[in-house]
Each structure stands twice: as structure tokens, then as C-alpha cells.
Structure to design on (393 residues):
């Protein structure tokens, strides 16, 4: 993960939205000519950021919960009081599909202006079949109406909705026998995810949900071991999950299971930061054990982060990842986490020309200089879509 393959004095040739050559400027210039050139002198060119874990689709906000956290109220306690996810469920249910689309489009374009060109986008704030379908349809329309590439994930198992209080098994039955097959038939999701957590969806229910997803052609992802060492990482290995996310309380046995099964660990350093938890995933043990590590923002009403550059910084400062590892985790590894590595995540011939021109002479400034947008230009499929933080659409 430390080997970025840096090319000094490099150039990229693009045709019809795809990279056709990358190498030394002199060599690329000898082989290609172009009407349009972008000068990146004294700048750094990287792949566009790939955000491997977002809860993009939501309405409303939860700013009042910041004060609750400051006073020591924990996340799961807020949820038990009807706040947290359940508050956002109420707001998202009350929004029409068009209202939700407009809200999320503004948010998505902000991500783009800050350098994120590809994201995984979850449902999970509807928690009725109608509202979950509405959320996934918004993801599909954002794919069609913005330059961003979005990979949809069905997260009907984000929380037990209030109308199923004390009837978790019945809700799981509904998810497995009705909702997941419907989502799959409508081709609205690629992945099926579950919030595997003590007091929410525990191991047996999580296994049942992920296996139901697999039977219907949805690839498994899992929120694992965020608050308790429940065994979510072990379950991820057992079901062959593409990605296990959070992992704050994963055991050494869980890490072994991830490595053995080839599961990608998607780490979300902004989540414990915003939750004021003085504990972070053990990135160093994961990396040294040979587990591929990706990064995600966890963008949500609980972790409202729209500049992915802060995620890279937190990965360095809180997870002790090197700047090179953080950049790898935010590009090619994240692309593998959402099964798009053949299209995006690295600057290679044949891939989509999703590129960032960074206003710096050394890539390490991404994690070193805080609190600003350091992206000079965002290119999506070879077309400049943002410059100096301003959209050019």
C-alpha cells in the first residue's frame, strides 16, 4: 500500500473519456497530440477519490445530538431514545422522492467539487419497502443526472423501525422474504449490507440477511464490530463479504478471518472522531496481517463530512497510516471494495479518466494541510467538472 508508482514529470493522454497512455511527458508527447491540454506543472495528479462507505441518501439533520455527545450520551443510547438513525428515518420518510433527489444532488455535487468522483451509496433511512425503494431510486437518478459514479447498497437492516419494536425476528423475516427479492428484481442495488451490532441485528440475524442477499444476487457487505466485539469480522469471513466496515473492536481472530477470506477492511476514521469515541480501528495490525484496507467517509447525519481530504488526514493522525497508504486506501483499494477497480481507482490505460489535479508539489500535503480544499481541478471521464472548488457543469 506504500508503493504509489509515482511518475516524475509525467503526462496522461485521454481519449473519449478513457486513459490511453500514461508515462513520462516526453514519451507521451511523442506518441500523442491533442487540441486540449491542461498544464499541471508543479502539481500532483492522482486518481479521483473513491469513497467506499456513505449514507448519502437522507433528509433532515441531527445537529442537536452534538450537544448530547458532548455531555456523554452514547450513540446507541441516543438510538434507544428514538434519535439517531430513527430520527433521520422520520425525516427521510416525510420527504418526497423529488425532494430527496434535490437534497442529495446538492450534497453529491459538493463531494465532487472536493475531489470525490466515485461513491458507494446506501439506503437505510427509509425502513419501509416503499421508502427503501425510493432511496435506491434516488441513487439511480443521481447516477443519471450527475457526473458522479454511484454504487448502490441496500441497507434495510440499518435499524429496527419503530413499528417493529420488540419484533426484530419478524422484521428480519420481512427483509429476507420480501424486500431483498424486490430490490434484486428491480436491479436497484449491487450490495446488501447490515448493521451487525449488539441490540440491533446480532450475528444470527445478520447472517440470515446477508445469505438472503446472496441468494438474490446481492453481494454482502457488513457494518462490523463498531461498538462491541460481537464477531462481525468473523461473520464477514464466513459469508465471503466483499467488505467489512468500521472494525473498531475486531479481535485477532476476526482479522485472521478477514485475511483468510480476502475481505477488504473499509475503515471510517471520521466516525469515531465525530462520535467522540477514543478508540479507532487497528489499521496497523490489519495491514501487517495482509488485509487490504480501504477508506470511507461514513457521510451521514451522524458524520456529516463532505470533503474526503479530511478522511485521509484522520487516517494518518488517528489510524497511523502513512500518507501513501491513505491515498491507496482512498483510490484503488476503495475501488476494489465496491467492485469497480477495473474502471476507476488508478491511472492506467483503459480506465476512466477520473483524475484530480492537486494544488501541491508533494502528495503528502493531502494529509498534512488541514481545513481547505486542495483540489485544483476535478476531471470526470476526462472532462473538467470542477476548478478551485467551483463546479463547471
Amino acid at each position: 500500500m506504500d508503493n504509489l508508482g509515482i511518475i516524475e514529470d509525467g503526462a496522461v493522454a485521454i481519449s473519449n473519456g478513457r486513459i490511453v497512455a500514461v508515462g513520462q511527458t516526453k514519451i507521451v508527447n511523442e506518441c500523442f497530440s491533442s487540441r486540449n491540454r491542461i498544464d499541471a506543472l508543479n502539481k500532483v495528479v492522482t486518481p479521483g477519490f473513491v469513497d467506499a462507505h456513505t449514507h448519502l441518501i437522507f433528509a433532515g439533520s441531527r445537529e442537536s445530538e452534538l450537544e448530547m455527545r458532548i455531555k456523554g450520551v452514547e450513540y446507541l443510547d441516543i438510538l434507544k431514545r428514538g434519535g439517531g438513525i430513527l430520527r433521520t428515518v422520520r425525516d427521510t420518510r416525510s420527504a418526497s422522492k423529488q425532494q430527496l433527489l434535490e437534497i442529495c444532488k446538492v450534497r453529491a455535487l459538493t463531494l465532487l467539487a472536493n475531489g470525490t468522483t466515485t461513491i458507494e451509496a446506501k439506503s437505510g433511512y427509509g425502513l419501509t419497502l416503499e421508502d427503501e425503494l425510493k432511496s435506491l431510486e434516488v441513487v439511480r437518478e443521481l447516477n443519471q443526472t450527475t457526473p458522479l459514479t454511484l454504487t448502490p447498497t441496500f441497507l434495510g437492516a440499518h435499524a429496527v423501525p419503530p413499528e417493529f419494536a420488540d419484533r426484530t425476528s419478524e422484521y428480519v423475516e420481512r427483509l429476507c422474504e420480501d424486500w431483498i427479492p424486490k430490490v434484486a428484481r428491480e436491479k436497484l442495488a449491487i450490495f446488501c449490507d447490515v448493521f451487525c451490532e449488539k441490540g440491533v441485528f446480532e450475528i444470527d440475524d445478520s447472517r440470515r440477511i446477508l445469505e438472503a442477499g446472496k441468494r438474490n444476487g446481492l453481494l454482502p457487505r457488513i457494518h462490523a464490530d463498531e461498538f462491541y466485539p460481537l464477531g462481525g469480522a468473523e461473520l464477514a469471513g464466513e459469508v465471503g463479504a466483499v467488505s467489512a466496515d468500521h472494525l473498531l473492536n475486531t479481535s485477532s481472530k476476526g482479522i485472521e478471518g478477514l485475511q483468510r477470506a480476502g475481505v477488504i477492511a473499509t475503515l471510517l476514521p471520521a466516525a469515531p472522531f465525530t462520535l467522540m469515541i477514543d478508540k479507532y480501528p487497528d489499521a496497523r495490525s490489519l495491514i501487517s496481517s495482509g488485509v487490504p484496507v480501504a477508506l470511507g467517509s461514513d457521510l451521514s447525519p451522524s458524520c456529516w463530512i463532505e470533503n474526503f481530504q479530511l478522511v485521509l488526514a484522520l487516517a494518518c493522525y488517528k489510524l497511523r497510516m502513512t500518507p501513501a497508504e491513505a491515498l491507496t486506501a482512498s483510490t484503488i483499494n476503495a475501488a476494489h471494495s465496491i467492485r469497480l477497480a477495473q474502471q476507476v481507482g488508478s491511472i492506467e490505460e483503459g480506465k476512466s479518466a477520473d483524475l484530480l489535479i492537486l494544488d501541491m508539489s508533494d502528495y503528502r500535503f493531502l494529509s498534512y494541510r488541514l481545513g481547505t480544499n486542495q483540489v485544483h481541478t476535478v476531471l470526470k471521464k476526462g472532462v473538467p467538472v470542477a476548478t478551485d472548488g467551483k463546479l463547471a457543469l
Q: What stands out?
A: The chain has a mean pLDDT of 96. The chain has two domains: 10-46+346-391, 49-337. The chain is about 40% helix and 20% strand.
